[in-house]
Amino acid sequence: MAKPRDARRWRFDALKPSLANVPQASGRRAVVALVLAILALWLGLDLSFRSWKARYNALAEFGASKVAPAIDPLAQMVPPDVPPNDWRLAVDDTHAMLLALTGAGVLDQSQMEQLRQDISDRVAQARPETARQALADLWDDLERKAGPVIAPDLTPPPPNSRHAARNSRPARPRLLGPPSKNP
Fold this sequence. Notes:
Helix content is 51%, strand content 0%. It is an all-alpha fold. It has a domain at 62-176. The chain is rod-shaped, with a radius of gyration of 34 Å.
């Protein structure tokens, strides 16, 4: 059976635009725009990280220079029943714990000021007979508030790693006894 010649044929050739009417645009503009967007994102992230790192370093320096040394005068108040060398080591461990706490980045400036004032008050009120209890109370309070931030390092970082230079977290001195359970 023959097809009628009058029937309309469906052809899509007429719907295609001619190449002469399409504007010629290369992918260069898109690639350049994409590269510029990536560079702008990288620059923004870099600047924000540098700003955060500067604030972090300033707080850590404040903690190392103002907060941690506040405990050092307690080393002169040796309790009567403690060998002087053991007492100095306990105060040094407390100093190292304070360095780790203030260098962890969990305290802001006002919290560090409060901590420094609290430590200064405890040291000012301590006497050789009460120094051990004052140091134990400080450890108890900070262990309750800071928790794992001041937990001792169970395994030290490998030497020559980027973590080897950070302040180590010492364990609670044995001469202070176990932590008290009183809140």
